[in-house]
Amino acid sequence: MRRLSLLLLCAGIAACTGAEESSDPAARDTLTRRQRDSIVGASGLPGARGVQRALEVSDSATARNATMDSLLRR
């Protein structure tokens, strides 16, 4: 009996966790991946420093590529 109730509980939880696709654009997430990563990097969560550092490296590479592009266009 205990096994059956545990199985039903797990099945109920699994049924409730399914994400529904919403056709309403306002209901969708409006943050970009960059914005979410920035929020995580500013938080005190474990690994946040690594996320923040990855964003800094990405910004540095983007700036370097922009400089190289502008030099090539001259």
Question: What's the helix and strand layout?
Answer:
Elements: H1 2-16, H2 33-42, H3 48-72
Describe this structure as you would to a colleague:
The chain has a domain at 46-74. It has helices at 2-16, 33-42, 48-72. 0% of the residues are buried. It has 74 residues and is mainly α.
State the helical fraction. Answer: 55-70%
Q: Count of helical segments?
A: 3
Percent of residues in beta strands: under 5%
* Chain-averaged pLDDT: 82
Secondary-structure element string? HHH
Multimeric status of the protein: single chain
Distance N terminus to C terminus? 78 Å
Please summarize the sheet with the most strands: none
For the secondary structure, the number of strands is 0
Shape: elongated
Flag low-confidence runs. Answer: none
Query: Would you tell me the structural class of the helices and strands?
Result: mainly alpha
Rg, nearest Å: 22 Å
Which structural traits does this protein have?
74 residues, 3 helices, elongated
Quick gist of this model?
This protein has 74 residues and is mainly alpha-helical. The chain is built from three helices and no strands.
